[in-house]
Amino acid sequence: MFLAAVSTPVWADTPARPGTVNYVEGQTVMGGQTLDAKSVGVEIGEGNSITTLNGKAEVLLTPGVFLRLGPNTSARLIAAKLTDTQVQVDQGDAMIEVDQIFPENHLRVLQGGFAIDLQKRGLYDFDATENLVRVIDGEASATNNSHRVELKGGHELNVATGDLKSHGFDKKTAEGDLYNWSRLRSSYLAEANISEARTYVGGQGFYGAGWYWNPWYSAYTFIPGGGLFFNPFGWGFYSPFMVYRAPFFGYGFYGGAYRSFAHYAPPAAFVGGYRGGYVASGRMSAGPAFRSMGGGMRGGRR
Known about the structure:
single chain, about 300 residues, mainly beta, disordered C terminus
């Protein structure tokens, strides 16, 4: 029997826990420690901050959730538990890609006196310079001492004004440098997913949904417990039971629906991903230049 994508996430052999650094480029510091490309796997730790100078950084939160920091950005890890993960954005611009979230996950971002709870898969932008919280796609709720504001996809909240209402915004305005870099990182990790998921075909040695280390990409990637997920940028993340279908490129849920193939189906029953909010003719389009590198070693970081 195939594992469902909604099974409880578990850690790989060597766990990557919330707050684990997954990628660094340029100048980044954590406390008095300078981080570089060799700092992958370093844990920030509760109460500590990571600050980019002229660089960028990617940090793992719960399995399937990536925190990405643009230049001149500082974020503090408030809580680093699987069921309670909290980050405070103090300066700059941070983006969170949520590819999978469970009801048991408590995923919260603190900014400008508001606590923003991320409730659904999606893409979220936290701009402390402009005092804006943007839900590019997904759903969140923002609360301060006395008010609660619901944020749907395509809506933003200014956390520095007295206007406690969400407002629509043009999603194209979010497609700046951090967005493009996040999309590129997401594509690399999707490739790493295909490579790593293939090492667990048949289920042997597979521990379920979680972070898995891929030595060829020198990063942790996310493997769902079953089926296939399209993330906000349209890249597919495959379970070992669906990776035989790779590589395919879905159209994600930018501006429309989000489809996750949460249960295994034989090829004849396989239906294409969502494109602009509808099922694309029962087929999927081939993705651009996935590097299927034949997989890596199993389990956690080697």
